[in-house]
Write a structure and sequence with these properties.
Chain A has 79 residues and is mostly helical. Helices cover 61% and strands 0% of the residues of chain A. In chain A, helix 1 crosses helix 2 (39-53). The longest helix of chain A has 16 residues, at 3-18. The chains are: A mainly alpha (79), B alpha/beta (596). The interface between A and B is medium-sized, with 15 and 18 residues.
Chain lengths: 79, 596
């Protein structure tokens, strides 16, 4: 899977979860950039990403992930 | 909405919850509003989100109070201003095995384990009693899921120090409490977590990351199970199953294969599957669900199939059998009319996707579950929780018989040219009087189920009904009606509140199975009698229109009341002077309670 493809699919997931079709994420995107991205929505985001790519994040990864770029690196390493 | 019916796609619901909620709220349907307090021992955010979707789909618009994280016990025992002013219609206590105060340890004696157990039960029972005293509303309490490790392995189940053993004891004690307390219901997460798979359910990362007591993907299953209890408490259960025959109740087509050719019974694998399904439907019928048939068949063939010696359902088990070649949606409409229930109370089971899609399109209120594999039929019907039972009265046991007696009455009626002669021939005997404690469950149930002959459509919880029963400022009447064909049980309820010299009639309802029998006149006679005994001068009647109660729009007018006001929404207020009232009932012999 190319990095571009991962970002395209991630964009869809972000738009669904935050119910906002304007969202476009890049490697520097963090919770500060998206209004509804609080700790409670984070969990739904993680579950939806796992579901989309058919992977499971480790607990340590979930709590230490700093931005979307790191998320993409993990997805790349698993698929 | 199909997406919220079993078997739903949990990941989809979690991901799309915001847009699904928007769609539901803008679909133009009318919903009853209910206030639900969620008192959590772990995170409840997404539980509330999912519960909201399922309830909206059931025609209930909830608003929520959510306790601070793990403040369930403090909120319940001490209350707080916010919760008090919220005035909940229902309280849900969301605890799990993560909230168990202290488990037994290997050094504990049996006495010490018993003390731990007693202490844990006291923690909960204190809370339940406080909640009942303070809020007088239905309470739903989770039981406990199994622990995700077993220190002693299998011995954990039978050693008093085992966590499995400790949790099973608590679950039994919770069940005992629920069985002996009205308006207290168990949300059986012990069962739901087993269905889901305990290992996945208990994935500890969700606890350590977010303090969820279960894995997030399991939340829709959890919320669906909880929503089923709530919709049942608020009177939104289904009432009748409409069943196709060929390839639904047996394998094959009876018209083509002949009675000897259909698959049912122990001879073949598929025959066994259909036998088990028929037996299951028989059990569903025993809970008070009405069975009917809607099949494209010659009636003769349909009956022959239902009389197959290996089948367990018989033609007599069905209240109506529509076996003909008309469109199924027309037959189903006729079934709803014939049973006098709404289309939203029907569930249609048919193996044929084409028939299902026509019925779904023509009759959107009818529930039409996917029936793909005969071996999954039982699971589909059962897991959909159409008939979640939260109260069970003796009338539920007899319902099928009562409806059948009605069919005999209808046949008799056709033989009389004068309707009065027909009513006389029924030899009707009624009991009308103040409520008796043993009837409160049935009376409460009626207030939540009656939609058509219901002037105010005021709903009561068990706790509210108990308050009405204890309050002297009410005049309460229940009415039973029997005739030569059978006993209809309690069919009418009237509640009036004394207001100076007037009686405000807050509730007047009657079951549609006794329409046009003069029962409403008998109730009015008794009401006037009781009101005069209490020295009152005027009855005040109220009619609040809904989508379903048009039939009683002019009831008070027919009774001889005078309309005194009407607003833009069609709400009307009526008055009747009690002096000079002459009794109206001519056909029913009425008695009062034996006890009084």
């Amino acid at each position: 899977m190319s990095e571009q493809e991962i970002y395209d699919r991630l964009n869809e997931v972000f738009r669904d979860v935050f119910d906002d079709d304007e969202i476009t994420v890049n490697e520097d995107t963090t919770a500060d950039d998206i209004e509804d991205w609080d700790s409670l929505e984070h969990i739904n985001l993680i579950s939806a990403v796992e579901d989309e790519f058919g992977i499971r994040f480790k607990m340590g990864e979930v709590s230490s992930m700093k931005n979307v770029g790191e998320m993409v690196e993990i997805i790349k390493s698993r698929s | 909405m199909k997406e919220l019916e079993y078997p739903f796609d949990s990941a989809y619901l979690l991901k799309k919850k915001k847009s699904i909620k928007r769609q539901l709220l803008s679909d133009g349907s009318t919903r009853i509003k209910k206030k639900i307090a969620v008192l959590g021992g772990s995170t409840t955010n997404d539980i509330i989100n999912m519960l909201e979707l399922f309830l909206l789909n059931y025609g209930i618009e909830p608003s929520f109070y959510e306790s601070e994280y793990n403040r369930y016990w403090q909120d319940a025992v001490f209350g707080n201003e916010e919760l008090d002013s919220f005035v909940p219609d229902l309280i849900f206590i969301h605890t799990s095995n993560r909230n168990i105060l202290k488990y037994p340890s290997m050094t504990d004696s049996k006495e010490q384990t018993d003390a731990l157990f007693a202490n844990q039960m006291q923690h909960f029972e204190t809370m339940w009693q406080k909640v009942e005293e303070r809020y007088h509303c239905p309470v739903i309490q989770n039981n406990f899921e199994q622990p995700f490790f077993r220190l002693m392995g299998n011995r954990d189940a039978y050693d008093h120090r085992g966590r499995v053993n400790f949790i099973n004891r608590l679950n039994t004690a919770f069940a005992d409490y629920a069985a002996s307390h009205e308006s207290f219901y168990i949300n059986d997460i012990n069962y739901v977590s087993a269905c889901y798979g305990l290992d996945k359910w208990s994935d500890p990362s969700f606890w350590h990351l977010y303090k969820y007591a279960m894995c997030v993907p399991a939340i829709p299953d959890f919320a669906f199970n909880l929503a089923a209890i709530i919709k049942s408490v608020f009177g939104k259960n289904k009432k009748s199953l409409v069943l196709d025959l060929d390839n639904t109740l047996w394998g094959g087509v009876v018209g083509d294969d002949g009675v000897d050719g259909i698959e049912i019974g122990q001879e073949t694998h598929m025959g066994q599957v259909y036998s088990e399904f028929q037996k299951y439907l028989g059990l569903v019928r025993d809970t008070g669900v009405m069975l009917t048939v809607c099949s494209k068949n010659d009636e003769e063939n349909a009956l022959a199939g239902l009389n197959h010696p290996e089948g367990s359902l018989r033609p007599d088990d069905f209240i109506m059998i529509k076996a003909n070649w008309d469109n199924k949606d027309r037959n189903i409409e006729a079934i709803a009319t014939g049973l006098n229930i709404g289309q939203d109370a029907l569930v249609f089971l048919d193996d044929n996707p084409a028939e299902r899609s026509i019925v779904s399109a023509q009759l959107p209120l009818v529930a039409v579950p996917e029936m793909e594999r005969p071996e999954d039929y039982i699971k589909t019907v059962d897991r959909s929780r159409f008939f979640e039972i939260t109260a069970f009265s003796s009338d539920d046991l007899k319902r099928n018989e009562m409806y059948k007696e009605n069919a005999v009455r209808a046949a008799q009626q056709a033989q009389f040219s004068d309707y009065g002669e027909y009513l006389k021939s029924l030899e009707m005997a009624g009991v009308i009087d103040d409520f008796l404690p043993i009837y409160l469950p049935r009376i409460t149930q009626l207030t939540n189920k009656s939609n058509q002959f219901n002037l105010t459509t005021k709903r009561f919880t068990t706790a509210e009904m108990e308050q009405v029963f204890a309050d002297d400022s009410y005049i309460r009447l229940y009415g039973r009606l029997a005739d030569k064909f059978g006993d209809n049980g309690i069919v009418s309820v009237v509640i009036g509140k004394i207001n100076g010299e007037a009686l405000d009639i807050e509730l007047w309802l009657m079951s549609c199975r006794v329409l046009k029998r003069d029962m409403e006149y008998a109730m009015l006679d008794s009401l006037c009698e009781k009101a005069l005994e209490r020295g009152l001068k005027v009855l005040k009647g109220y009619y609040y229109p809904t989508a379903k109660n048009k039939m009683v729009k002019e009831l008070y007018g027919d009774f001889g009341f005078t309309k005194i006001s009407e607003d833009e929404e069609g709400n009307t207020v009526w008055e009747l002077e009690l002096s000079g009232y002459t009794p109206k009932n001519k056909y029913i012999t009425v008695e009062r309670n034996q006890e009084s």
